[in-house]
């Protein structure tokens, strides 16, 4: 299992251990019999902790199974994806408490989701594929408005919007540029893609991947050589590789 995936799963195992200690402590207190009044409340807490521990075992166990198994399982993939989303806020909270770099945890989440995506890849028609890029990829000095309608790009090559238009022409896939979540949701509603290649920073990708449940999303983190949200870049070879996989069925 690659390093980044381990960060998210490792924190989940940490949560499992804490829950175990809580459940054992509460069981000990109940066993001592000095808490008649709170007995039932404590029992509920013990069972709650045990339930969450069971979910973590399922999520981590299923991920390890998928990593080492060659058999794709749609059911297991969606189970893991849902459990990751359920535990996401807890994992982020733990990361904050222990002063871990949130970006690294987000990268770990995206890597696990991409891994699950690759394990259940299907063949798609070009018109069912949407490449969704953030507005900050456009050259800041460009006077043409490519948001929503990428065909307004004049192909000067000063930014990678030019490469995205190339992909649109070469493969026939949809390409859209969105300024934020609201426009991204509108694009998805209008185009109705069956699969999305989303380009964004870690924070926007994790929130988008959690929001879009019914459509598989492959996340590509953008590069920020000029700082966040300004003249960002993306590894276009990763986009092209993913388009080919989707059009060929893996
Ligand atoms: S490639 Fe297109 S979007 Fe980028 S700067 Fe040139 S005209 Fe503007």
Structural domains: how many: 2
How many individual β-strands?
Answer: 4
Distance between the termini: 21 Å
Radius of gyration computed on alpha carbons: 22 Å
Question: Which residues form runs of ≥5 with pLDDT under 50?
Answer: none
Strands in their spatial order, largest beta sheet: 2-1-3-4
Name the CATH class of the largest domain.
Alpha Beta
Shape: elongated
Helix content: 55-70%
Keywords: Membrane, Transmembrane, Transmembrane helix
Protein name: DUF116 domain-containing protein
InterPro entries: DUF116
Organism: Thermoanaerobacter kivui (Acetogenium kivui)
In words, what does this structure look like?
Keywords: Membrane, Transmembrane, Transmembrane helix. InterPro entries: DUF116. The chain crosses the membrane at residues 7-31, 37-67, 79-98. It comes from Thermoanaerobacter kivui. It holds the Pfam family DUF116. Strand 1, helix 5 and strand 2 form a beta-alpha-beta unit. Helix 1 packs across helix 3, helix 1 packs across helix 4 and helix 3 (74-97) packs antiparallel against helix 4 (102-119). With 250 residues, this protein is of the alpha/beta class. The longest helix is centred in the N-terminal third of the chain and has 30 residues, at 3-32. It folds into two domains: 3-119, no CATH class; 126-248, 3-Layer(aba) Sandwich (Rossmann fold), CATH 3.40.50. The model has no long low-confidence stretch (mean pLDDT 91). A four-stranded parallel sheet has the order 2-1-3-4, sandwiched between helices. The protein contains eight helices and four strands; from the N terminus they run ααααβαβαβαβα. It binds iron/sulfur cluster. Iron/sulfur cluster is lined by residues 138-139, 142, 144, 146, 153-159, 161-162. Residues 138-139, 142, 144, 146, 153-159, 161-162 line the site of iron/sulfur cluster.
């Amino acid at each position: 299992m690659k390093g980044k995936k381990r960060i998210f799963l490792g924190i989940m195992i940490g949560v499992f251990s804490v829950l175990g200690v809580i459940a054992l402590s509460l069981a000990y207190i109940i066993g001592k019999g000095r808490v008649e009044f709170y007995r039932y409340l404590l029992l509920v807490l013990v069972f709650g902790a045990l339930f969450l521990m069971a979910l973590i075992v399922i999520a981590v166990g299923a991920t390890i199974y998928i990593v080492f198994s060659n058999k794709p399982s749609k059911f297991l993939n969606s189970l893991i994806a849902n459990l990751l989303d359920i535990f996401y806020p807890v994992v982020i909270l733990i990361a904050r408490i222990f002063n871990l770099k949130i970006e690294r945890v987000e990268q770990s989440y995206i890597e696990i989701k991409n891994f699950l995506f690759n394990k259940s890849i299907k063949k798609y028609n070009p018109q069912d594929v949407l490449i969704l890029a953030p507005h900050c990829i456009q050259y800041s000095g460009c006077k043409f408005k490519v948001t929503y309608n990428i065909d307004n790009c004049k192909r000067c090559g000063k930014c990678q919007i030019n490469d995205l238009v190339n992909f649109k022409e070469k493969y026939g896939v949809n390409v859209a540029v969105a300024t934020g979540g609201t426009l991204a949701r509108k694009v998805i509603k209008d185009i109705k893609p069956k699969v999305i290649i989303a380009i964004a920073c870690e924070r926007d990708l994790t929130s988008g991947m959690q929001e879009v449940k019914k459509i598989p999303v492959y996340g590509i983190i953008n590069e920020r050589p000029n700082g966040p949200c300004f003249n960002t870049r993306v590894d276009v070879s990763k986009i092209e590789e993913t388009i080919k996989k989707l059009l060929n069925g893996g």
